[in-house]
Design goal:
Number of domains: 1
Shape: flat
Low-confidence stretches: none
Strand content: under 5%
Distance between the termini: 59 Å
Mean pLDDT: 80
Order of helices and strands: HHHHHHHH
Length: about 200
């Protein structure tokens, strides 16, 4: 099968080839200089790619595919993907851990046992939300336009700003309940009882 490198996927192929090459170098170095098995290293590298790169890559591919920062588009996608993953997954993981400690007062033993479940669940949720928002983008934009017009008619000139404030409040409320749901699912999956 002849591959056409002038396709729109050229930068994606170059980026993934670079990630594969760096991963193979790390596996080779750690296999030579440590006693860890190569399968354990492969699992750790794949989980790092899953958590620290894949959600951002989905976001970049869906929303920022044409954005150019440098002369190297593969490097642009890598940087944007990595940064987007940091912003989304790590921020949500911090919030989940924060709420687990200070709001739900889960014991440290439970938090330690469920730590491995938090990032994969957040990754799935981030990817699902990104794909869902892209899929319903036109409907959401039309709904926002109708709501903004309605708010302008009913409230006046400050209507769209009040609508934005209410929307942010609702989004934060949904985020709060999403974090509660994540903690609930993690505790149920692990079979632990909080008290």
């Amino acid at each position: 099968m002849k591959m056409n490198f002038e396709s729109k996927y050229k930068t994606d192929l170059l980026m993934w080839a670079g990630i594969l090459a760096v991963s193979l170098v790390f596996i080779g170095i750690f296999t030579v200089f440590t006693t860890t098995s190569p399968l354990t290293l492969i699992a750790k590298i794949l989980s790092a790619i899953l958590i620290m790169f894949l959600p951002g890559y989905v976001i970049v591919k869906l929303y920022l595919d044409e954005l150019k920062l440098t002369e190297n588009p593969a490097l642009d996608k890598f940087i944007l993907s990595f940064a987007s993953s940091i912003v989304t997954v790590q921020t949500l993981a911090f919030l989940v851990n924060y709420f687990a400690v200070y709001m739900f007062e889960l014991d440290q033993e439970i938090r330690i046992q469920v730590t491995n479940w938090v990032p994969p669940i957040i990754v799935v949720l981030v990817i699902a939300v990104a794909v869902g928002l892209k899929f319903f983008q036109a409907k959401i934009a039309a709904l926002w336009q109708r709501l903004s017009t309605w708010a302008s008619q009913k409230i006046g000139e400050s209507g769209p700003m009040i609508l934005l404030i209410v929307t942010v409040f609702l989004a934060l409320t949904v985020l709060f309940f999403l974090i509660r749901l994540i903690l609930f699912v993690i505790i149920k999956i692990s079979g632990l009882q909080p008290y």
